[in-house]
Amino acid sequence: MALSNIFETPAPGFNFDNTARNAALEGLFDGGKTPKPMKTGTTIAGVVFKDGVVLGADTRATSDEVVADKMCAKIHYIAPNIYGRNPRVVMAVNILQDMLYRYRGQIGANLILGGVDCTGNHLYTVGPYGDVDKVPYLSMGSGDLAALGILEDGFKPDLELEPAKELVRAAIQAGIMNDLGSGNNIDICVITKQGVDYIRPYQESQYKDNRYTCTSHSLLNRHGDHRRAGKLKLIRLI
């Protein structure tokens, strides 16, 4: 009779059968307590516009309740070419997908990859288990709900460059203002067929030291750190 349970079809929905087992195992072994997951926070976003892709990210890196870095660069250059010729964006996506799938989620990296190639403008999200989606706009991180609301409200097909930059900036700003794990400056990266315009910082936070004043944010209408390089950019969630 007991063996018949082996062949029973599992019931759909969530299964919490291992909860009691895990609690019992914790009491049997010294130091065998289930590790507490470390919370990391950020807000990253991307938008496909008429002539390319705009990526954006905040610059705060957190480790649990500690702000580890206030100027963390989360938009990373990949490569102008692979094996002597210009790569398609999907090639870079496949490489990231294969690498993350190999570790079955043990590398907790949620990635947004944007680029422009001969087939058009592309924006992908790559999850820690190797799952891939191609989207016209996207936000990820602990502040993604606030950012996604801005993107859904303001996105339109065939956006021009300046409206696309402002949309990404507003999305990241919403994540910063509504999430303690996101903050400090905003970096913007514009990718077109002509190259890459990496503006760091695009918007800089200004903190006043007076005791009873609040944090204010001002938009810098300047081009900070411009880098012209290849046409593929990766933005990461840490």
From TrEMBL:
Q: Do you know which Pfam families this protein is assigned to?
A: Proteasome
GO BP, sorted A to Z? proteolysis involved in protein catabolic process
Known PANTHER family for this protein? METALLOPROTEASE TLDD, PROTEASOME SUBUNIT BETA
Q: Where is the signal peptide?
A: none
Q: Which organism is it from?
A: Oreochromis niloticus
Name-wise, this protein is: Proteasome 20S subunit beta 13a
The cellular component terms of Gene Ontology attached to this UniProt record, alphabetical and capped at eight, are: cytoplasm; proteasome core complex
Q: Which domain of life is it from?
A: Eukaryota
